[in-house]
Amino acid sequence: MTQNTPLSLRLPRPPLGPEDVTERVISAAQLRARGVSATQTSAQCLPGGPWQHLLPGVYLLHPGPPTGQERLHGALLYAGRPPVSARRAPAGPSETGFGEAMVTGIAALALHGFATAGDLGALHRIDVLVPRTRRLRSTRFVEVLRTASAPGAVRVGEVPVAPVERALADAVAGLTEAAHVRRLLTEAVRDGHCEPASVVRELSEAKLLVRPAVVGAVDALLAEGRAVAEARLYAMVREHGLPEPLWNVELRLPGGPRLGGVDAYWPDHAVAVELDTRAPRYGVPGRRGRAQQDPQWSAYAAKREHLERLGVTVVHLTPRKLREAVDQQATVVRTALMAAGDREPAGCVMALPR
User: Fold this and answer.
1) Element spanning 203, H or E
2) What does the domain layout of the chain look like in residue ranges?
3) How far from each other are the two terminal CA atoms of the chain, in whole angstroms?
């Protein structure tokens, strides 16, 4: 090729699949590693040229509008640039150049498969999470969010993405419509992306629980979480051949006080199952805050102690264990039922619908 051959034809370009954006979106550092100078890059981005300037320091190697995946890749390249004080030799073309940046917010939820988040290509904004020490401005379609305690990124394909709970909190922080917040939170639990407690904890740590758009949505989230956990419990009993219990009953002593409600009760075995669907609310322990006494847990413990003094075995199950280790939880319940014959008979405990 002659010296006058367009640069876009002189650069080696491997065949591209429909999802391969690595060679269509590239950083200035990666171009320099290929021997392309800043002057040559600028020439390719002139009006009518084959390239375009997508973001500061990031280029799109075709003249058409960027796809959703190209915008996503460009946002990570922009946010992942090392700070000036830490820059060394230019990154090679095989390096991602994403650094510690990860996608969060609505874009991350779209990558996690949330239907409520919409199509990635239709999003007007891509939120990217970076360490608090980065001096990086939001620009064009990229919103830079800084954090002092970055979560561990998960990989969706080759894209670093914030965990669902953190992505939800960052998405909710930018929403004012209660109905939209409610749809996102309930989908997170209904479709098994995460448990209510972890979502509420993340919202609490982000100081979002007092927002008007969030308060009612959290109540809906907890209700959805309990419904999902109950459905898993019903399925566990039936699919593992356990005896049919009395469902959702109130235990009490004849003529005496109420002992509390349980989710399942086998009166012939004096075995009860209780689902722990607590979620941390205002002032309840979180990862970053000082641990405080959880009044809900105190009530659980007191009820369990009282029932066990009366000869009732209480099996405590969490929604997460029912989702991730249902076979093991079925074995725990079955063992409790089988051990009933080795215990002293339970006191006269009545089970009433609740």
Assistant:
1) helix 196-205
2) 11-174, 233-285+295-353
3) 83
Whose CA is closest to 160, among 52, 76, 65? 76
Beta strands in 164-204 (DSSP E): none
pTM summary value:
0.80
Alpha-carbon distance 194 to 78, whole Å?
Answer: 30
Q: How far is 288 from 303, CA to CA, in rounded Å?
A: 29
β partners of residue 130: 146
Gap between the Cα atoms of 5 and 166, Å rounded? 48
DSSP 242: P
Query: Strands (DSSP E) along 179-275, which ranges?
Result: 246-252, 258-266, 271-275
Strands 126-131 and 159-161, bridge-based pairing: unpaired
Write the pLDDT tens digit of every residue in 169-191.
999 999 999 999 999 999 999 99
User: Rg for the chain (alpha carbons), in Å?
Assistant: 28
Q: 199 is written with which tokens? A: 């979502």
Selecting from 1.10.1660, 3.40.960, 3.40.50, 1.10.150, what CATH number does the domain 233-285+295-353 have?
Answer: 3.40.960
pLDDT digits (tens, 9 = 90+) for 239-273: 999 999 999 999 998 877 888 899 999 999 999 99
